[in-house]
Amino acid sequence: SGTINYNKVSDDHYFTDLRFWPALQTFSQGSLHDFLRQQLDVELTRARTKISARRAQAKESNILGIPNMAPLLCVRTLNHRPGEQNATEYSVSLTRADMIEFTMEH
User: Fold this and answer.
1) pLDDT at res. 5
2) What's the CA gap between 73 and 9, in Å, rounded?
3) CB 27 within 8 A of CB 35
4) How confident is the model at residue 60 (pLDDT cuts 50, 70, 90)?
5) Which one of 44, 58, 99, 103 is most buried, by most CB atoms within 10 A?
6) Confidence label for 64 from pLDDT (cuts 50, 70 and 90)
7) Which has the closest alpha carbon to 54: 96, 104, 5, 100?
8) H helices within the chain, ranges in order?
9) Spatial separation of the C-alpha atoms in residues 58 and 22, rounded to whole Å
């Protein structure tokens, strides 16, 4: 697992395949899925996305520079390799609710 902090965003990624770990330690910015594709020839497909709102806890408040209990947008994703049923990656992204716009196109 690992945490990636962008400007007012906190991302945690959890992988089931420990063979990814050495390469993941060199990742510092950009698209994690592009990195996995380029470095490990791993293609991930999004299986599920859950979006919710919740209040920031103390650790998250410190990371994001916001007051304790401030509203956050929480996006949880489950990704797998094509053709496989078991998850390869689970991620949790927390974003300041006052700094996000969510658009769905249909």
Assistant:
1) 43
2) 10
3) yes
4) confident
5) 44
6) confident
7) 96
8) 21-24, 32-40, 58-64
9) 30
Task: Return mean pLDDT, the chain.
Answer: 88
Give the Cα-Cα-Cα angle 90, 6, 54 (nearest 5 degrees): 60
Nearest to 43 by CA among 1, 80, 98, 8: 80
Q: Which segments within 1-106 are labelled E, that is strand?
A: 2-6, 9-15, 45-55, 71-80, 89-96
Find tokens 């094509």 and name the residue: 82
Neighbours of 7 (CB within 10 A): 9
Strand order, beta sheet including 89-96: 2-6, 9-15, 89-96, 71-80, 45-55
Is residue 8 a contact partner of residue 95, using CB atoms and an 8 Å limit? yes
Q: Which amino acid is at 3?
A: T
Amino acid at 91: S
pLDDT reported for residue 87: 94
